[in-house]
Amino acid sequence: MKTGKRGVRRALGKATICLMTLALSSAPVLAQAPARVMSLNLCTDQLAMALAAPGQLSSISFLSRDPSLSAMHEEAETYRVNHGRAEEVFLENPDLVVTGTYSLHNTTGLLKRLGFRVEEFSFIQTVETIPDDIRRMGALLGQAARAEAMAKDFEAELSRIESRQCGKQPTAIAFEQGGVAAGSGTLADSALAAAGFRNLAAEAGIAGMAPMPIELIVPQKPDVIITRAGEEDQPSLGAKVPYHPALRALEGTRIGPFVPRGTWSCGGPFTMEAVRALASLREEIAPCGETR
Amino acid sequence: MRPAVLNIILGLLMLALFVASMAVGPAELDISESVRGLFAGGGEAAGIIMREIRLPRALLGLGIGFTLGISGAVLQGFLRNPLAEPGIIGVSAMAAFGAVLIFYSGLAGSTLYALPAGALLGAVVAVLLLLALAARSGSTLTLILAGVALSSLSAALTSLVLNLSPNPFASYEIIFWLLGSLKDRSMEHVWLALPLMAAGWLLIALSGRAIDALSLGEEAAASLGIHMKRTRLLIVMGTALGVGAATAVAGTIGFVGLVVPHLIRPLTNRLPSRLLLPAGLGGAVLLLAADVAVRLVLPTGELNVGVLTALIGAPFFLWLVVRSRREVFYAA
Q1: Per residue in A200-228, is it b (16+ CB within 10 Å) or e — as a string?
Q2: Label partner for B206 (CA 20 to 30 A): which of A31, A82, A157, B82?
Q3: pLDDT by residue (tens digit) across A93-151?
């Protein structure tokens, strides 16, 4: 009984959408490519924006407009935004919902029960998983060729940067708001490794994003402490922790954002900007000399 | 107990806990490393840890504990109310709200000076508001109820401001402001708060003779030549300076000012002025001990010290309420 009702409602919704699409657009729509895609997660937003055809992406999450989190915040201004609520999805009635596995667990479950097609992307991303994330999003959006080219570019540049490494490996810590460090298995950890840094937080046994006491960082004397960029205009106490006088007192330790803002909050084609910035920082700190 | 003996014992306890606070931390330094680090110059890791991380933390524990203890003692004496305390009557919560409002709105850029400025303002407003209420009715209950309302309102407004902040991580700092902490403080915070707190202690100390006379009632005090307006100003400014500065750098740490005067009063001759110094020392002892404990219980995750003082203080508060129930009901 329940399923029947839901089926009818969905069918009616689909029919309405079909009629609207027919009425509004004369462009032919590929059979397998969803015409209206809704993204509920900052990371899927940016992958989708990079790959979707004009008009294909009906809305993205509001976080994508936050310059401190989103590398594509300017592009995000041109899209409608949602707040990741099931009601919004119901009203928008997209053909496909893309979101992260971590965020909005209840919403995702509800949407699946309501019969929406929901594709979840793992929030555990590294520079190695990014090309496949790009390919998967491309396949979902019917943009496989475009995605393949983008993924290939990413892989090529990644291996080019990795091959520039030499024996010298300066040490680094990606130190976020409130003294949280990026440990093993994080995107930041993989970007640091690709650029030729040793991640001291991972070596100290930190897995994922976890607090790391300043007292444990001081004796390690990292060459670089990488903070979150773009907080000058958004004061918080946590943002001051990486600039604690005890860390500033370390001679030879550089503290700063170093990585363009938003480029490693999420994995996407733009994450290469972070790897590039880190690689040139590494070459500045520990030049390889004649080997290059 | 003779006052001098009591003060010396509490002072020694405070020193011992100050040393303990310097000795505890995730970087396990042994004693010789710690001592050398503290007194030798240079950029050695042990030196930086001792001078830039543990010293400010211990100094703030001492200063804030002293402030909360002495403020509790003076408020209990002045308001003749056994339940008066900066946390319970809402002064700390208003100070936290003031700090949060000015700092997170970015009105003053992201400078740390915004914190004490906002906190002092909040604390002054709170004390004046409470005095206006308490002066009208001498009842214990009115003051406490007004304090409860003020605390809840300030906590709600603090959460609101932090949730509305453009910084997506600011809302994680709600817990710091509602249940304070001494984690990751630096000498900058010490220089910011300690002079203001010391000024507060001085003002409170100057009110000592007046609160002794006030224990005989306001008219008797006036006949003894006590200037009520001056006394009120001293106490308002003293507690607001002290509690405001303390809250600006460590968030709301409750119940220290409630528990300590009650524990120490039986050891004194019960003159309110004689309670001020030992209550301050006792407050420092309690907060330093609590701050050592939070670092030992959960070395990496670290509990907020305000959680621990509330765990100790709230049952104590209930016990006081039960004990003074009859008095409270009649006064109402």
Answers
A1: bbbebebeebbbbbbbbbbebbbbbbbbb
A2: B82
A3: 999 999 988 666 678 888 888 899 999 998 889 999 999 999 999 999 999 999 999 99
Read off the tokens for B288: 């330093």
How many residues comprise chain A?
292
The rounded distance, in Å, linking the Cα atoms of B164 and A176 is: 21
With tokens 């490494």, the residue in question is: A165
- A218: which chain B residues are within 8 Å (Cβ-Cβ)? 27, 45, 48-49, 53
Write out the E strands in A101-238. Answer: 118-121, 171-176, 180-182, 198-199, 209-211, 224-226
Residues B280 and B201: beta-carbon distance below 8 Å: yes
* Mean pLDDT for the stretch of residues A233-254: 89
Q: Is A58 in the same domain as A117? A: yes
The residues with which A138 forms a beta bridge, in sequence order, are: none
**Residues B92/B95/B96/B98 CA torsion (nearest 10 deg):** 160
Question: Which of chain A's residues have a Cβ under 8 Å away from the Cβ of B106?
Answer: 233-235
Compare CB distances from A245 to B45, B54, B186 and report the shortest one's residue. Answer: B186
What does the pLDDT look like over B71-107, one tens digit per residue?
999 999 988 888 889 998 999 999 999 999 999 988 8
How remote is the C-alpha of A224 from its chain's centroid? 23
For chain A, the residues whose C-beta falls within 8 A of a C-beta of chain B are 63, 66, 68-69, 177-179, 211, 213-216, 218-219, 221, 231-241, 244-246, 249-251
Which residues of B fall below an 8 Å CB-CB distance to A?
A: 25-27, 43, 45-46, 48-49, 52-54, 103-104, 106, 109-110, 112, 114, 165-170, 172-173, 176, 184, 186-188, 300-302
Could you please state the CATH topology (level 3) that the domain comprising B57-331 is classified under.
ABC transporter involved in vitamin B12 uptake, BtuC (1.10.3470)
The number of distinct structural domains making up chain A is: 2
Domain, as residue range, for A238: 167-286
* Residue B72, token pair as written in the block: 């509790």
Smallest Cβ distance to A69: which of B48, B114, B168?
A: B168
Domain boundaries, chain B: 57-331
Best mutation target among B33, B34, B52, B59 (most A Cβ atoms within 10 Å) is: B52
Q: What is the pLDDT of residues A38-59, one digit of tens each?
A: 999 999 999 999 999 999 999 9
Q: Is residue A99 part of a domain?
A: yes
pLDDT of residue A124: 84
Q: Tell me the per-residue pLDDT of B47-60, one tens digit each, with 9 for 90 and over.
A: 999 999 999 999 99
Q: pLDDT band at residue B39, thresholds of 50, 70 and 90? A: confident
In a domain, A24, yes or no: yes
Residue A108 lies in a domain: yes
Domain-terminating residue out of A123, A144, A178: A123
Report the C-alpha gap between A184 and A17 in whole angstroms. Answer: 45
Contacting residues of B for A249, CB less than 8 Å apart: 43, 48, 52
Contacts of B54 in chain A (CB under 8 A): 215
Is the model's pLDDT at B184 over the cut of 60? Answer: yes
Question: In this model, does residue A15 exceed pLDDT 50?
Answer: no
**How many beta-carbon pairs under 8 angstroms link A with B?**
94
Under the banding of pLDDT at 50, 70 and 90, the label for residue A250 is very high
Q: Give the one of B52, B165, B167 whose C-beta lies nearest to A246's C-beta.
A: B52
* Domain C-terminal end among A106, A123, A140: A123
- What is the least distance, in Å, from the CA of B302 to any CA of chain A? 10
